[in-house]
Write a structure and sequence with these properties.
alpha+beta; 17% strand; 4-stranded antiparallel sheet; Enolase-like, domain 1
Length: 337
């Protein structure tokens, strides 16, 4: 299967045009178009493939003069991987490397006697302009300034987007070294995040806005940084799910023991119950005090221990303390109030 991205790799690097290198023009008859600075074409080819004569170049195959017009036939050669990959075998006598690729030939033409101020006047630029015209057509075959020829510059939004992209490319904070340092710092901070709140704080610290700028010059770097956040979020959620599952699998804590009430059985069949609290115990012993003072008979079960009775309670019923030794063996701990 053909790798479409590989086929258009060079095209994609050359297709977008810097708006600063263009200007509109109008020809007779009302035709309007966008003119591209010829020097910009040379600059972009040099940036992508290397210096002319090393990574790319051109030859003039033919020159014709006809009907006051100068015509030049040109072909462009290039090394797809740039000047560093050019091969110059020993004994090679050509002006282009042995592994050069070629565009198809193109003709360019220029008037030799263009009209100026209503009069035809000769120009010494016609031959050079014919080569420039043909060269531009050859470079278009590689994709250079394809957006202009495809009419995308007629869209104001596209022009604004291109202006932002080329402005970003001239920003020192968006050069490769700066982007690499930014990516490393973000990775360090993301790795240190413990929960989603930490991750959100890192994102809101300016990472999001910086990535939007980076996207104009290096979409791969933008994707890598976004991937750091996505992966860290997935890791945090996975840990939280695992912790929740562990918590769910823990056996339920046993319910607190039910505190049985303190019960007094009176001789007349009356039954009194007191809650197993300090206040309940105080009421219990006050009742005992009344029963003893009245010489009434009673018995009890599940009485609170003497150790749980406060000194204040023992002070209120001093004579009750004497009888505690006799029933201590049947005592159980009282619940806290």
């Amino acid at each position: 299967m053909t790798d479409t991205n590989a086929n258009t790799a060079l095209w994609d690097r050359l297709k977008r045009t810097d708006p600063k290198a263009t200007k509109p023009f109008t020809k007779s008859g009302g035709f309007r178009g966008t003119q591209i600075d010829p020097t910009y074409r040379l600059q972009l080819m040099t940036e992508v493939l290397g210096p002319v004569g090393q990574g790319w170049g051109y030859v003039e195959d033919d020159l014709k003069i006809s009907h006051d017009m100068a015509f030049s036939k040109v072909r462009v050669w290039y090394v797809p991987d740039g000047a560093s990959a050019a091969q110059w075998p020993e004994g090679w006598r050509e002006t282009y490397p042995a592994n050069a690729r070629w565009t198809g030939p193109q003709w360019g033409g220029t008037e030799m006697m263009p009209e100026r101020s209503g009069k035809a006047k000769p120009t010494d630029e016609c031959l050079k302009m014919s080569i420039t015209d043909a060269l531009g057509k050859c470079l278009l075959q590689l994709g250079l300034a394809a957006d202009v020829y495809m009419g995308q510059f007629d869209d104001s939004k596209y022009r604004e987007e291109s202006e932002a992209i080329f402005a970003a490319r001239s920003n020192p904070d968006l050069q490769p070294a700066a982007i690499e340092a930014f990516e490393a710092e973000v990775k360090r901070r993301v790795d240190a995040c413990i929960d989603l709140d930490d991750l959100e704080e890192v994102w809101r610290s300016g990472v999001g806005s910086r990535l939007r700028e980076i996207a104009n010059v290096d979409k791969a770097a933008q994707a890598r940084v976004n991937g750091l956040f996505s992966q860290k979020k997935a890791d945090i959620l996975k840990k939280e799910d695992a912790a929740a599952a562990t918590q769910d699998n823990k056996p339920a804590a046993p319910p607190p023991p039910t505190a049985e009430p303190i019960i007094l059985f009176l001789a007349e069949g009356e039954v009194k119950e007191f809650p197993r609290t300090l206040k309940g115990a105080e009421a219990y012993f006050n009742t005992l005090d009344d029963l003893i003072r009245g010489d009434r008979y009673f018995w009890t079960t599940n009485a609170p221990t003497a150790e749980k009775l406060s000194a204040d309670l023992m002070t209120k019923a001093p004579h009750i303390a004497r009888m505690l030794d006799g029933i201590k063996a049947m005592l159980v701990p009282a619940a806290a109030e």
